[in-house]
Write a structure and sequence with these properties.
Rossmann fold, about 400 residues
Length: about 400
């Protein structure tokens, strides 16, 4: 083989290993328009110079045939960006494209201080880097570490899960340092998301993982604009954290992280609370079953969350995720506060083996269909009674 041909063949082979392959089983997207904008920004003076801070990047896709009245706002989790919804590590379409194909407008954000929402240390504080082992243990190869009882059930990662796996390389490349102060994250993102709702109007709010902690205060502040909450394994468990240490004990008690139960941000409780210190939590004596943590709930009588009671809520949980031991605590906490959430465990509807990053895994479209069916059933009267605009 001539040297030039050998070189080109080698480059092509290397590219094929590293770059994801575009899915060929979907026709081109038909869009009315797409674009981007920022919300929530304001000028801040640092060392006698002015900088934009608090801004959130938003990209949108409006389908040519919009059949649902409310757009879906998609908010990613802690060490990620909006790319969680715009594709998968092995090159398939993400939930943004999936729901656009179903007739929804999709608004995908980069959280404040992440991705295209620029980071300013003087305003946001220090960040923590994300090492590769975090992803190995929690998402792509969790079955090898077995840190929680359900971890061994994982089989939906689109690759081998090894560090040199092209899909893993794509995931690691997409991860972003996180603002260290979790309460600060909530304080920054809550007003930016409220500004987004104020700009685009009534919407469905999809929050994943860490974003769950500011999904609740956003909906509490704008209950008339949030038409449904899709809580995809939202941050938890309520009140006190749990650490995973593997067999035989699996669970280690953590610190009080969510001072208002499901968030560290103030919520409209009834009776009212002036500060989080007025809320009291007690731990259940027994877990609900094998492989589950004991929940922390409000001490009786429980304060209610009247604004959130008006909003349909879906809590979605994967079979093999590290949320599997404790998402029931989030559901119980919401019920105790007067909400009536729908809890769908994917295993109960025949979908097995998913991790916490289910939107990136092999069966992400199948899971998207579960969400879509719930939306169709829950918001059917709204779809019938509201004129579908091109928003």
């Amino acid at each position: 083989m001539p040297l030039r041909s050998f070189f080109l063949a080698a480059v092509f082979s290397l590219t094929a290993m590293v770059l994801p392959v575009r899915a060929a089983d979907e026709p081109p997207l038909s869009l009315a328009r797409e674009g981007w904008f920022y919300v929530g920004g304001h000028l801040t003076t640092v060392n006698n110079k002015q900088y934009m801070t608090g801004q959130m990047y938003v990209e949108y896709r409006i389908p040519a045939k919009k059949t649902h009245p409310y757009p879906i706002i998609m908010v990613h989790g802690g060490t990620m960006s909006g790319t969680n919804y715009t594709g998968t590590p092995d090159g398939r379409e993400g939930w943004a494209q999936y729901f656009v194909r179903q007739g929804y407008a999709a608004y995908v954000v980069d959280q404040v201080g992440k991705g295209r929402s620029s980071y300013i240390e003087q305003t946001y504080g220090p960040t923590d880097l994300v090492d590769s082992q975090n992803s190995q243990q929690r998402y792509v190869a969790q079955e090898k570490y077995n840190l929680w009882p359900q971890a061994h059930l994982h089989n939906q990662w689109p690759g081998s899960g090894d560090l040199n796996d092209p899909a893993v390389q794509q995931l690691l490349s997409s991860q972003i340092p996180a603002i260290r102060d979790f309460t600060k994250q909530q304080q920054l993102n809550t007003p930016a998301l409220i500004a987004l709702l104020d700009k685009i109007g009534p919407s469905i709010l999809l929050v994943h993982s860490q974003a769950g902690a500011f999904g609740w205060p956003v909906a509490d502040a704008r209950p008339d604009l949030v038409k449904a909450i899709l809580a995809i394994e939202p941050n938890g468990p309520p009140a006190y954290n749990v650490e995973f240490v593997g067999a035989p004990d699996y669970f280690k008690p953590g610190r009080l992280g969510l001072t208002y139960g499901i968030t560290a941000m103030p919520l409209t409780y009834s009776p009212p609370v002036a500060s989080a210190s007025e809320l009291s939590f007690v731990q259940e004596e027994n877990a609900d079953g094998t492989g589950l943590v004991k929940c922390w709930l409000q001490a009786a009588p429980a304060h209610q969350l009247p604004n959130l009671q008006k909003i349909p809520v879906l809590v979605l949980s994967a079979e093999a995720s590290y949320h599997a031991p404790y998402d029931h605590c989030t559901v119980k906490h919401l019920q105790q506060a007067g909400l009536r959430p729908t809890w769908i465990k994917l295993a109960d509807v025949g979908i097995h083996g998913n991790s916490h990053v289910m939107m990136l895994e092999k069966n992400n479209r199948q899971i998207g269909a579960v969400i879509g069916r719930w939306l169709d059933k829950t918001l059917a009267p709204a779809k019938k009674n509201n004129r579908v605009s091109a928003r």
